[in-house]
Write a structure and sequence with these properties.
Number of domains of chain A: 1
Number of strands of chain B: 0
Strand content of chain B: under 5%
Distance between the termini of chain A: 64 Å
Strand content of chain A: under 5%
Low-confidence stretches of chain A: none
Radius of gyration of chain B: 21 Å
Structural class of chain A: mainly alpha
Oligomer: heterodimer
Number of strands of chain A: 0
Number of helices of chain B: 19
Mean pLDDT of chain A: 83
Helix content of chain A: over 70%
Chain lengths: 219, 477
């Protein structure tokens, strides 16, 4: 126990906090900045796990997290927003109050679910997994409450960060897994980028309400 | 190692090669040749299997899936060669897009084959993700409003599903950790299964919920099915055939593997009832939704949801007979549904539309095409003498003995779907001719091959095949 655990839990807790920040951002550049912060905290959390688990391979995972999640992807998102000229767009997130309450309920739920069942698991992993599940669930909530394609992408990426946190917390998880997950996130992001441009090209907006008018079967 | 290379390295190498070739006729041929090689490689697994390693595992269960996967992959590449020529002429696709299409086709086959032979649950997850992302790109390839909307929906729902499955995978590793210890061994099927009896049951239960939701999204189970009809309807038809015939099976295979793991842990919940419930809901709702369909590809996409519901129900019922019936139904559905999509692809190209209201009297205007469609729909509706009748009969009769009420509900779903399919078939195949009546130039050989196999299975199942399936079913517990 001791300080090592406390710092690990603090970093995981900070990620949950950053997820809450993401939840109510209504301007895209601010949203992307918080996402960058999310990625930074993730990299720190993974590096700290590497230190307390004495697992050198996790340092590599931390560097990858820093490069991909904190630098490359937010940077690319910034450029996409710039190129699409949507940095001034304000989006309706739904009531901030109810959304925040729902977020808190999700955190409570994930602690309630994960802590009892991981009683026999590694004590470091235990709380990390519970907090990681909170980040995953809040990521889902962000995706649900957004009307804008970029907003949904931000939710998806924060969800992936939560899973990365869980993988780092699971002691001795092979590096190959983290490498390939990072790789697939990168590929996924390329797909996202391509489609954002296509949506813009076809619909003149990345507001998903425009997509929905084409939903289902046309007469 | 050579067959394994044929199944994995050939598609990968072909994808790279196809990305470089501009002539679409040549690349269609290379696509066929690569798919044939992979199929030949998978057939050799029937006689000789490589020893299980740290990355790959071939056992009696996944051989069924691999052979089916590479076979339908091969026939689809044949169908696709005829199909894309027409798309190029009608200007829906350009030569550049066809290059991309062929490369992605092989990437997709590579991803699915890798998911099936992976011995490591992490590797399997990555492979399913790869197959998903490549199909997302294919669904959006026409770049119409509807195609982009379908691809985005598929991407978002598919990614969330896959992400939940990854969380479940990490939880399985965590459950195994106190018993197996650190390192890659904690993610190997063989090691996991050998130690499953000592795992923490509560953690394994939670992991299974995530895996069921995650991979279940990719299986197309209600209520996570929303991506499926759009993705089937708006992409190129060869991709619809592969999605229904193969990708759903790959996700199902992942689910079945984890089900075996749960069954080996005495304290864990029984996965059966969860699967039965999801399967029944999917069957019933999809059967009802069949009535409102106006788009021919959407109609058969909903029928895929219904069929996957039946299959998941059968595997949920388990027992030697339930599992055998589930495997048989899955095989028959893959073959029949891809044959139907092949015919539908030809029909939609001739008519220039996918709207059911604008097509009719096919048996009169295009006898060959019309009657193969009739045969396919009769088969998928579960009528004799086709193989789906046999497997559905097995499912219903085996579940009636210990759960008559559930079996009755399943029969209700089957009847509702049966009615909807025959209703639509009546207008499509018979009655007055509607829509364009141009000639069909593409080959119908893949359709005949599939339907002949389904018919053969309905009339006479070869004893070695039955023994093989029975053995695979026994592994499912």
């Amino acid at each position: 126990m001791g300080l090592g655990f406390d710092i690990a839990h603090m970093l995981a807790g900070l990620m949950v906090l950053a997820s809450f920040l993401l939840l109510y951002q209504d301007r895209l550049p601010a949203l992307i900045n918080v996402l960058r912060l999310h990625g930074f905290i993730l990299a720190l959390a993974v590096a700290w796990q590497a230190y307390i688990q004495s697992a050198p391979h996790l340092y590599i995972a931390a560097v990858i997290a820093l490069a991909v999640k904190a630098l490359v992807i937010p940077g690319a998102l910034d450029r996409i927003v710039d190129r699409l000229g949507i940095h001034r767009e304000v989006e309706t997130v739904g009531g901030i109050g109810p959304t925040m309450l729902a977020g808190m309920a999700l955190v409570a739920l994930s602690l309630r679910v994960m802590l009892p069942i991981t009683a026999h698991a590694d004590p470091v992993s235990r709380q990390d997994i519970a907090l990681a599940l909170s980040v995953v669930l809040i990521g889902l909530l962000i995706m649900v409450t957004r009307r804008n394609a970029v907003g949904q992408v931000a939710g998806f990426l924060s969800l992936e960060n939560g899973i990365d946190l869980a993988a780092a917390g699971a002691r001795g998880m092979p590096l190959v897994v983290e490498l390939s997950v990072a790789f697939s996130v990168l590929i996924a992001f390329i797909v996202i980028g391509i489609f954002l441009f296509r949506i813009r090209e076809r619909f003149d907006t990345v507001d998903l309400a425009a997509l929905e008018s084409f939903r289902g079967e046309r007469q | 190692m050579i067959p394994l290379a044929a199944v994995l390295a050939v598609p990968l190498a072909a994808a790279l090669l196809l990305a470089l070739i501009a002539d679409y006729r040549l690349s269609a041929r290379i696509n066929i040749a690569a798919s044939l090689l992979a199929f030949a490689g998978s057939l050799s697994f029937l006689f000789h299997r490589p020893a299980p390693g740290a990355l790959f595992l071939i056992d009696d269960l996944n051989v069924v899936f691999i052979v089916l996967n590479t076979f339908v992959g091969f026939t689809t590449s044949l169908f696709s060669a005829g199909y894309i020529g027409h798309e190029l002429e009608s200007g829906k696709l350009t030569a550049g897009y066809l290059r991309f299409y062929h490369a992605m086709f092989q990437v997709m086959l590579f991803g699915m084959n890798l998911a099936l032979v992976a011995a490591n649950i992490g590797l399997m997850w990555v492979a399913v993700e790869l197959a998903t992302l490549s199909t997302v790109m294919m669904v959006g390839i026409y770049r119409t409003h509807a195609a982009i909307e379908a691809a985005w929906k598929y991407f978002i729902l598919g990614s969330v599903g896959i992400a939940l499955a990854l969380f479940g995978t990490i939880l399985v590793y965590l459950a195994a950790h106190p018993v197996i210890g650190s390192g890659a061994a904690g993610m190997l099927w063989t090691v996991l299964l050998a130690h499953a009896k000592d795992f923490d049951p509560a953690l394994l239960d939670t992991a299974f919920v995530f895996l069921l939701l995650g991979y279940g999204t990719k299986v197309g189970l209600v209520p996570m099915h929303a991506w499926l009809p759009d993705a089937h309807a708006e992409g190129p038809t060869p991709i619809s055939a592969v999605l229904s015939g193969l990708l759903l099976n790959v996700a199902l295979y992942a689910l079945l593997r984890f089900k075996i793991l749960l069954a080996a842990c005495p304290g864990a919940i029984a996965p059966g009832p969860l699967m039965i419930a999801l399967g029944l809901v999917s069957t019933l709702l999809a059967a009802l939704m069949l009535y409102r369909r106006r788009d021919i590809k959407r109609l058969f996409a909903y029928s895929s949801i219904e069929q996957m519901g039946i299959i998941v129900f059968a595997f949920g019922m388990a027992g030697p007979l339930g599992n055998l019936a589930g495997l048989l139904q899955m095989t028959m559905h893959s073959l029949t549904k891809s044959a139907i999509f092949f015919s539908v692809g030809h029909v939609a190209q001739v008519k220039g539309t996918q709207r059911i209201a604008e097509m009719g009297g096919l048996t009169e205007s295009h006898p060959l095409l019309g009657w193969t469609l009739v045969a396919g729909v009769v088969a998928i509706a579960g009528l004799p003498p086709f193989g789906i009748f046999t497997s559905e009969f097995l499912i219903v009769s085996s579940s009636f003995s210990h759960a008559p009420l559930l079996a009755a509900l399943l029969v209700l779903g089957l009847l509702v779907a049966f009615g909807a399919l025959l209703l639509r078939l009546g207008g499509l195949a018979f009655g007055p001719v509607r829509g364009a009546v141009g000639p069909v130039r593409a080959s119908s050989a893949p359709i005949f091959a599939h339907l002949a196999l389904v018919l053969l299975a309905g009339l006479w199942l070869p004893p070695p095949l039955v023994a093989w399936f029975r053995h695979a079913a026994s592994l499912l517990g």
